Amino acid sequence: MKLLAKTSLYYLILSIPILILSGFICFHIITREVRESNNELLLNRNEVIENYLKEKDTISLKIITKSSEATIKKIAIINNFKIPVPIFSDTLIFDKKENELAENRLLSSVFKVGNANYSIKIWRSTLEYNELFRGIFTSFVVLLILLFVTYLVINFWISKTVWKPFYRTVSNLKKFRVIDNVIPCFENTSVTEFDELNRSLNVMMQKMIVDFNSQKKFTENASHEIQTPLAVIRSKIDLLIQSENLKENDVKLIIAIDDACSKIIRLNKSFLLLTKIENRQFNVTENVSFENTVDNSLVFFEEHIQANKIEVIKNIESDFCVLMNADLSLVLINNLLQNAIRHNINNGNIEIFIAKNKITISNLGLDNPIDSQLFERFHKDSTSQESLGLGLSIVKEIAEVSGLVFDYKFTAGKHDFILTKK
Amino acid sequence: MKILLIEDEPELQKSIEQYLEMEGNIVEISPDFSHAQQKISIYDYDCILVDITLPNGSGLDLLREIKLKKSKAGVIIISAKNSLDDKVNGLDLGADDYLPKPFHLSELNSRIKAVIRRKSFDGNLEISVNEIKILPHERRVLIHNQDVILTSKEYDLLLYFISNKNRVVSKSALAEHLWGDNSDRLDNFDFIYNHVKNLRKKLLEKECEDYLQTIYGIGYNFKTQE
User: Which residue windows are transmembrane per the record (chain A) (predicted)?
Assistant: First the structure.
């Protein structure tokens, strides 16, 4: 969910109960105020009526009762009658004008003048609470909508302007590759937080590049430094086998040493190759025809293909031509073919499909797809002792520097290794 | 043959010297740049082996001097750096071959011979070993002056054996010579066995003496002398 949508949602969720609560408070305050002012008014009028009763001003009393907002009745005197305190109550009285029952506030009291007791009832129509409630509700809903719309507009504007540097930073991060050795340029912003973010990212990237380079340098140096001692070992083995009187046991030892030595040599060469590819040291490019490359490679592996009774099915739609380094293209195809031969089944086959924008090398093999980790260094299939576990990672690396996309697909025992143009 | 080895690693100097002297070559050693400079300016050699990274100098500069002197020596760069630039620069500067370390001594030897062959008679030199005659520029083999039809790999093997005759050549050296270091070794060893078997058969059919000795577990020796 986008930040804007998320904050808006929270805003909406939080503002609804607050608005409901304040609506209720508002409703109560209004009704209380209205009731109090009505009560006061009724009390005042009651006093006026009491005065008229005291002064026996029957004319005024008549006028009051005629306006039908008050009734005055004489009630019989009962012994020990205690005059009750005036009582307020809400009542419904039929309104002739509106032709409906209307809410009224009623004050009933008893007043003693001489020996006579008068029961006085006066009323006054009040607010209709339903309508009040509806009014408040409507205005608060409108308020909510208005606030929300304003909020959205403000936020939209903020994200357009205030968050702009942030989005720029994100797009810079997406583009950043430690291998490129280039730190993206972060523009200065007027927002402290973003500035701080950019600064820390800058520091982090610088450190990443330095670390990456020193690690790369280390591998490179180590690989180079190892070459000379390896050359010494190999030359000594070559001299040792010239000896006339080697015992069978000595021979076994020499073979074991030679095997291990050869393995280190191949491993080291693969490392150097990977480093060189990563360093973009193969920068001489030409238009490479993959049809030719595949043919060359097939000749190279002729014996391996025959020995493993593998059938090669070539299907060429049109040549796949790429502007890339020729040596690397051969290494690429050699590695793929070697992989296809090594992991094939008995009497299996290799299908090579070449089209204008695509080359696929498929082989029959194990019944389950290979782990994508095989494309990383040193992940290898346990069945193959000879494999160094670097072949596919070299393929991946070469594809990357040559503007190709390397893909793998598995369908029912068939492993497809696909190269397409980016 | 007189060979100058410009290399700073003492143990590698010893190995190369020992291997090359087995065939009666004279090997002189220069452990550093200035020493090599002197040697090159004073003496003539049939072949010069140059390491690129040397104490106080670069092998590439030595190449320039060799070129200036118009020396007839074949030059092979032996480098631990195995970098494309060095290879390209080296060959541009007039080196005849480039052999990255680590290498088999038998490979070095066969390269030296190939370079010298190319240099001295424009490659038109025949190689003769008793009844065997090889015409390298035609990739042709004659035994008792009769043509032997060999496959490309069999021819390469024979030439390699003869370049390193009377010495034990290991299977791993042969595998690397034929396929580089880029394929399965176990398979390669089987293929070598088959190729050698076929080669021997073809040679024997033409009444060639059986020179090829199998050295158990290790490799082969093309033995022309007792």
Answer: 9-30, 136-158
